[in-house]
Specification:
By secondary structure, the protein is mainly beta. The chain has a single domain, classed as Tachylectin-2, Chain A (5 Propeller), CATH 2.115.10.20. It contains 2 helices and 20 strands. The chain has a 5-stranded antiparallel beta sheet with strand order 1-5-4-3-2, with no helix packed on it. A hairpin with a 5-residue loop joins strand 15 and strand 16. It starts with a helix and ends in a 9-residue tail after the last strand. The model has no long low-confidence stretch (mean pLDDT 92).
Length: 309
């Protein structure tokens, strides 16, 4: 390795192995993922997808999957989207999520098309761990947006996404309805749920405020929305919002902060024992001096304590 590469590695703390090598004995601490998303495979095991990158956030051209039987030891990675096979050049490949709709497997993933604005795109596959093919973009063409998640309400599929602070300053979380055949969106339905400044806990003073990682879940007939932002102390945090009528059509109020120790972009899933789990990435960035790298962490959701706004 030349002097320049050694210096770059020292300053940035970025790993030089690319793509990640296949192994059957990864622990979560060894998987360099952001935005982890876990789905049961229906056979007693789990699959996990997430954001992987080499030098910086937008240099990945693939979506990778890992597999586990116990949530502790993981095999992989397996490539389920290959950017080199897409119709044109895309960057980023952020925040993949897998959703099962009418027996089909759908992957929502953020991409940045060359010469256009970043957005969430929908892919589909016949199998959970197969190669996924693109359908089309499911966030508005005119907005820089990311982290789209799907939710079903009254037989309608909605994409809830983040309109980036680079466009609007005070980042938005918005929802837009997909067409019935999932081939696109009805932009007339696009609505604002709330802005990043709705959080008042250690709120940043800058005019640019981040919204990341929306994810819905239902509990006791109520509808909740997880999301993440950066706090004034530079820590990344996981927050909780709640719909006032138990549906995605309601108004969302801020319940507070669930985790403020530099982790976030979380989702919930039930393990095979019926325990509600939360998975997120922590820390939020690679740090050279402590040799800490973003990786998935899993908690029992019941172990998180809400800090009220």
């Amino acid at each position: 390795m030349g002097l320049y590469k050694k210096l770059r590695k020292y300053i940035t703390g970025r790993r030089m192995v690319w793509p990640p090598e296949f192994r059957e004995d990864y622990t979560l601490e060894q998987i360099n993922f952001r935005d982890p998303y876990i789905v049961k495979d229906g056979k007693g095991g789990y699959v996990m997808v997430g954001t992987v990158y080499h030098y910086n956030y937008n240099d990945s051209n693939m979506c990778l999957m890992y597999k586990s039987n116990d949530l502790r030891v993981w095999s992989g990675p397996y490539k389920i989207v290959d950017g080199d096979k897409l119709d044109k050049k895309y960057y980023d490949f952020w925040a993949p999520e897998i959703h099962i709709i009418d027996g089909r497997y759908f992957l929502a993933i953020t991409l940045h098309p060359q010469g256009a604005k970043r957005g969430t795109y929908l892919f589909e596959s016949d199998t959970l761990d197969g190669e996924y093919s693109m359908i089309r973009r499911i966030t508005p063409e005119g907005k820089n947006s990311l982290d789209g998640t799907l939710v079903c309400e009254c037989d309608e599929i909605w994409c809830t996404y983040c309109h980036e602070y680079i466009d609007v300053g005070d980042g938005h979380i918005r929802s837009v309805k997909l067409l019935a055949d999932l081939s696109g969106i009805d932009e007339s339905t696009d609505r604002l749920l709330f802005k990043a400044s709705a959080n008042t806990y250690k709120c940043v003073k800058s005019r640019k405020k981040v919204t990341d990682g929306p994810f819905y879940f239902r509990k006791d007939n109520d509808l909740y929305l997880l999301w993440s932002t950066e706090l004034r102390d530079k820590n990344y945090a996981l927050l909780l919002a709640k719909s006032d009528d138990g549906t995605i059509y309601g108004n969302f109020s801020q319940e507070g902060v669930l985790f403020d120790k530099d982790g976030g972009h979380a989702m919930l899933f039930e393990d095979y024992d019926g325990t509600l789990k939360v998975v997120m990435h922590c820390p939020n960035a690679r740090t050279v001096f402590t040799h800490r790298f973003e990786h998935p962490v899993i908690f029992d959701y019941a172990s998180l304590n809400l800090i009220k706004n």
